[in-house]
Write a structure and sequence with these properties.
Chains A, B: This is Thiamine-monophosphate kinase. Chains A, B: Belongs to the thiamine-monophosphate kinase family. 2 copies of one chain form a homodimer. Chain A is an alpha+beta fold. Chain A has 10 helices and 14 strands. Chain A folds into 2 domains: about 5-145, 2-Layer Sandwich (60s Ribosomal Protein L30, Chain: A); about 155-315, Phosphoribosyl-aminoimidazole Synthetase, Chain A, domain 2. In chain A, strand 13 and strand 14 form a beta hairpin. In chain A, helix 2 packs parallel to helix 3 (about 95-110) and helix 4 packs across helix 5 (about 180-190). At the A-B interface, helix 1, strand 2, strand 3, helix 2 and strand 4 of A face helix 1, strand 2, strand 3, helix 2 and strand 4 of B.
C-alpha cells in the first residue's frame, strides 16, 4: 500500500454539499469558505507516542482522542467545528492499524459535523498532528469567542464534567497505583476517549467571561486564564474533590492532586459573573454537561486553595510542562 | 526553559493590525477572518528528521524550509498567504537551536506577510508540522484557485525555475555522487532553502488551467494533474533537461532522472492553453520567476517522453512514495 492508496482508502470522503468546504482531500490545498458573519477559530495539537498516548492504546481510541483533544480547544472558544486536517507520521503503512484508527477518528468527526479536508502522510516515528477549524459568530466586527482574558474579580469559577480520572488511569498503567478493575476501566475510558465539551462551549457564549480547556491540569490551565485576565482565584478544595469520579478509591490528598494537576482531562474551566448562575445552569442543562462551581475570581494574583472550613492549604502541585 | 517560556520567547508576535488575524498565539484558538470575497486555502505538511531534512542542516535553513514547503502548496493554488500554525515535537528545549530556527522561519513568513498565529509544542522525536492559510478570490460563488483537475487536451505543459538540483545535493550527501564544490553548494541551497513560487501562482490565476507543486518529483506530481484531469501528457526531454542547473556536472541520463523524479523541488508544474503563451510569459515576468515549456497535454492517458528527434524514450523513473 503506497502513500496515495493509503490516503484514498482511509482518509478521503467527499465534502458535505452546502457546507463550508468547497474542496476537500486531493489537491494541493483544501478550500474553505466560513459562513457569512463568522470568524474561523483555528487550533493545532500534536500527539506523540509515549507522551500523549501509550503504544498499547487501541487504534480506534487513538483516532478518537487525536481529534477530541483538538475539538476541546474549539470548545474552549465556543466555536462550532467545521473541518480539520490530519498530518500523520507512521512507522509503516499498516492497514490493520489504519482501518480502526480512521474509524475512530471519523466517527467522532461525524458526530461533530467536522470534515477531514486534507493533510499529509509520511514515514517516521508515530506522530499525529491535527489542525481544527470552527466557526464563531461575529457581532459588530468582534468575534463572540470565549477567551482566556475575560475573567473579572468576583466571577464564579466552574469546571465541566470530571477532573483527575485520566491521570489515575495513567498512574495505574505506570504501576504506581492499584484500584479495583471497574474503577480503572472507567478511568481508562476517560484517558483514552475524552469527550470534548463542544456543546457546552457554544452554550456558554455570552454567558462565560473566560474559558480554557483543561489539558495540562487545572492549575496550569486556570493559570493561563488568571495571567491573561490579570486576576487571581481561590478554589474550594471540597468542591474540587467532587470532580474526580474515582475519589472513593483514593485518599483525599492523592485525589486532590489528580484533580488539580492530573492533566489529559479535556474539560472546560471557565468563569462567569455571580449573577449568571442561572444562565450557567441553563447552558449545562442545554448541553447535557454537568458543571461544578469550585471557587471565585479574586483581585490578588495567584491561586489559593481553601477547604470547607476556610483554611488555606499549602500544596506543591504543578501543571504538566513538556520541558520541565 | 519551559514550554510556555519557549513559545513566548521564540514564537509569539502580535498580529498585524488590520490583517485577517483577529487573535494570534496565546489562547486556546487563533481567530482568522478571511477578507470579504475570498475563500481560505489550507494545507498541512509534516517534516520528519532523516526523511525531509538531514540532522546536520543548519536550524535557520530548516526553519525556512518548513514554511517554504507549505507556502509552495499555497502557490500551487494561486493563494495569497495570510497565516500559519506550527506544531513542533522537540527532543529538548534548546535555545541554541530554537533561536536560529525561529529566525529562519519568521524571516520567510515576514517576506510573504504570513503570520504565525498558533500551534503546539511537545517533547518527542524532532517533527515539524505546519498548517498554512491563504486567500483565494471568489467570483460568483466559485473560487479562483488553481486546481489539479483543469488540464485540457492540447494545453501546454510548463515548469517553473529548476528541477533536480535538490536531488543532486541529496545524492552528494549520501556519498552516491561527486561534483565540484560550487555545483554542490548551489544545489545544496536549492535543497535546504527552496523558494516557494507564491508570486507566480498568484499571477497564473485565470491563465493556467491546472497546477500542482513539485515535491515528490515531476513524474509523480504531474501524474496527479493527469489523473484528476483525465488526460495524458508528453514531455520533451531536451526541454526538460534544461531545468537542472547542474546538468553540465552530470551525464544526460542521470540529469534527466533527477529532473523527472528528483523530488524536494518546490517548483510549480502547470498547464495553460496554447493561446495563453503570452499571458504565461507575462505572469513569469511579473513574478520574476522563469518558466519553461516542456511538453503538451494529450488525450491518451499516461506520460510519454520524447527527445528532440521525436523518439519515444523508455525509462523507469518513479515518484517518491513514503511507503513504497
Amino acid at each position: 500500500m503506497g502513500e496515495f492508496d493509503l490516503i484514498a482508502r482511509f482518509f478521503t470522503r467527499p465534502p458535505r454539499p452546502g457546507g463550508p468546504t468547497l474542496l476537500g482531500v486531493g489537491d494541493d490545498c483544501a478550500l474553505v469558505q466560513p459562513s457569512p458573519g463568522t470568524a474561523l477559530a483555528i487550533s493545532s495539537d500534536m500527539l506523540v507516542e509515549g507522551r500523549h498516548f501509550l503504544s498499547t492504546v487501541a487504534p480506534e481510541r487513538l483516532g478518537h482522542k487525536a481529534l477530541a483533544v483538538n475539538l476541546s480547544d474549539l470548545a474552549a472558544c465556543g466555536a462550532t467545528p467545521v473541518a480539520f486536517t490530519l498530518a500523520l507520521a507512521l512507522p509503516r503503512a499498516d492497514a490493520q492499524w489504519l482501518e480502526p484508527f480512521s474509524r475512530g477518528l471519523l466517527a467522532l468527526a461525524d458526530a461533530h459535523g467536522c470534515e477531514l479536508i486534507g493533510g499529509d502522510t509520511t514515514q517516521g516515528p508515530l506522530n499525529l498532528c491535527i489542525t481544527v477549524f470552527g466557526e464563531v459568530p461575529l457581532q459588530g466586527g468582534r468575534s463572540q469567542a470565549l477567551l482566556r482574558s475575560g475573567a473579572q474579580v468576583g466571577d464564579d469559577l466552574y469546571v465541566s464534567g470530571q477532573l483527575g480520572d485520566a491521570r489515575l488511569a495513567l498512574e495505574v498503567f505506570r504501576g504506581q497505583l492499584s484500584v479495583p478493575a471497574e474503577v480503572f476501566e472507567a478511568a481508562r475510558a476517560r484517558m483514552e476517549t475524552p469527550s470534548p465539551r463542544v456543546a457546552l462551549g457554544q452554550a456558554l457564549r455570552g454567558v462565560a467571561s473566560a474559558a480554557a480547556d483543561v489539558s495540562d491540569g487545572l492549575i496550569g490551565d486556570l493559570g493561563h486564564i488568571l495571567r491573561r485576565s490579570g486576576v487571581g482565584a481561590c478554589i474550594d478544595t471540597d468542591a474540587a474533590l467532587g470532580l474526580i469520579a474515582a475519589r472513593h478509591a483514593l485518599d483525599a490528598d492523592q485525589a486532590l492532586g489528580f484533580v488539580l494537576a492530573g492533566g489529559d482531562d479535556y474539560e472546560l474551566v471557565f468563569t462567569a459573573p455571580a449573577n449568571a448562575r442561572e444562565a450557567v445552569q441553563a447552558a449545562s442543562a442545554h448541553s447535557q454537561t454537568p458543571v461544578t462551581r469550585i471557587g471565585r475570581i479574586e483581585a490578588e494574583p495567584g491561586l489559593r486553595l481553601r477547604d470547607a472550613q476556610g483554611r488555606l492549604l499549602q500544596r506543591q502541585d504543578q501543571a504538566f510542562d513538556h520541558f520541565k
